[in-house]
Amino acid sequence: MNLQQLEYIVAVDKFRHFAQAARSCGVAQSTLSALIQKLEAELGLSIFDRRKHKVYPTEAGAEIIAQAKMTLYHAAQIEGIAESHRNGPSGRVRLGITHTAASCIVPGLFSYMSQRYPDIDISIDIADDKSLAERVRLTETDMAILTLPIEDETLEEIPIYKEQLIIYSSGTDRGREWKHVSGSIDDLIRIVDANGGYARIPESYTRYLTDNQKKNIRQDDLKRYIEVGMVIRRDFMMDSLVHILTDAVKSIMK
Length: 254
Hints:
48% of the residues lie in helices and 22% in strands. It is an alpha+beta fold. It has 2 domains: 3-83, Winged helix-like DNA-binding domain superfamily/Winged helix DNA-binding domain (Arc Repressor Mutant, subunit A, Orthogonal Bundle); 90-254, D-Maltodextrin-Binding Protein, domain 2, CATH 3.40.190.290. The strands form 2 sheets. Strands 3, 4, 5, 6, 7, 8 and 9 form a 7-stranded mixed sheet that branches. α1 (3-15) packs across α3 and α5 packs across α9.
């Protein structure tokens, strides 16, 4: 058993298709299939049920794949720690950001990191709070910036900043309140502009509004705030990356 075999079974589980999994791993399908079959023979059971159009893990296979994800997660952290000690802050980070925070953070994050930490490669995954927390828990994302609290004892919350929500209206605060469920804050603003009503948006987003749009800003009498923070697994070992990214967000949100 080796890490390559574990990577292959995780890829097949993700795509539920051997050919697509092989392409994602950059190998021939025959190579991937042979190594998975070798692992199954070593373990003495089938990891996948191949009788259907889509490939599905067996009951035992699902348990094995879950452990494979954990093993690959910890192996990646060991490699990252070693690389950071050899070359300074470096490596790949899978960063999740909630829709609300992404609109304010992402525009400045890449320039901040490229200027100060050019050897850190960040991939961004934008989704809702619940989905991102689940991806961190399942090791599919290394860390996530989202709205606190998340109330998950398996994850650690690191507060970064708190900000007030303000009203963006179509000229009057009356009418429907549009809630932010998915998509960007810019999408929410366009909905208000096209349909009337109002929405609550983070105060920091006003820097991206046009002069005409800024005329539609109202203070919220209810004085509502959101707290945004970093969420990681409690067994995440790369503390230096957490500090670097939380400092980056604090700098961007000043």
